[in-house]
Amino acid sequence: MNCTLCPRRCGALRTADAGQGFCQLPETILIARIQPHLWEEPPISGTRGTGAVFFSGCTLRCAYCQNGDISHRNAGRPFTPQELSDSLRRLVDAGMHTISFITATPYIHQILAALELYRPPVPLVWNTSGYETVETLRLLEGVIDVYLPDLKHRSEAMGRLCAKAPDYFERASSAICEMVRQTGTPVYGADGIMQRGTLIRHLILPGLTSESIQLLDWVAETLPGTPVSLMRQYIPMNGVAIRGLDRPITEREYRRVRDHMLTLDLPGYLQEPESASTDFVPLFCRDESYI
After folding, report:
1. Has this prediction a pTM greater than 0.90?
2. Per-residue pLDDT tens digits for 160-201
3. Strand, helix or coil at 55?
4. What confidence tier does 60 reach under pLDDT thresholds 50, 70, 90?
5. What is the CATH architecture of 22-289?
6. So where are the chain's domains?
7. Are strands 98-102 and 124-128 parallel, antiparallel or unpaired?
C-alpha cells in the first residue's frame, strides 16, 4: 500500500516486510504488548483494567517518549487480523472493562479487518498522540466508542523541536474536534466506565507551563464540557537531550497548571505524583507481554 493515513501523507510504499515512509512500518501489524492494563484513567481502566494493545511504531518522534523502543525503533511481533481478533477475545474473557488500541493509526485497515472477525462487547478506546487527519478518523466513525487523544504542544517551535511535527497543534486540534463530533457528550455506565465520549490527555512538560495553560484555554473555549486528564508523569527518558527537558517537572510547575485547570472549571482527572516513575512503563516484546 502507498500510505497517506497520518498528517505526513508520505505516500510511501509499505509492503508486508518493510516500510519506506516516516514511520518505517510495514503493512503487517506489529504489536509490542497485549495485556490487561490498570494504569489508565478511572473511566478507562476501572477496577479490572483495560485490554491494552500497544502497537509498534508512531507517526511522531517525541524526544522524551517513554516507549521509545516500540515507538521509535518499531520493536514488536507480527500479527495477522485473525491473531489480533483472537487476542481481543482473550482480553474480554479476562474481564476487561474496555479495549484500548494504542498508537494504532498506521494499522487502521488491519484493525477494522480484525473487528469484522470479532467485535468485543465492551467500549473500544482509540488511544492516540492526537496527530491524526480528519479523513482517517472518519474511517473509525461508528466503530470507536471512546477517543483518548494527547494534546501535546501549542507552538510550531515546540512541535518541531519535541515531536518533529511543526504542524502538531493544527492537526491535533482539528482531529480532536472531529473526535468530539463523532462521540458527543461523554456517557458513563453505572460502574463509571466511559461508554462513549472523548477524554483529552495533556502531559505537563518542564519549562513549558505557559504552553500547557494555552492548551487548557483552547479546550475550555472550543470544547466546553470535554474532560481533561492532566498528567504529571514526565521523567526524562529515551535519551532526551533537549535542554530543559532533562529534568522532571517541579511541584511549582504542576501547581501552576493544575490551578489554572481548576480556575477554568474543566472536568477531568489529576494524576498522582507517584506516576512519575519508570515502574509504570510496561514490559514489551517478552513472551509474558502477550495474553
Report:
1. yes
2. 999 999 999 999 999 999 999 999 999 999 999 999 999 999
3. strand
4. very high
5. Alpha-Beta Barrel (3.20)
6. 22-289
7. parallel
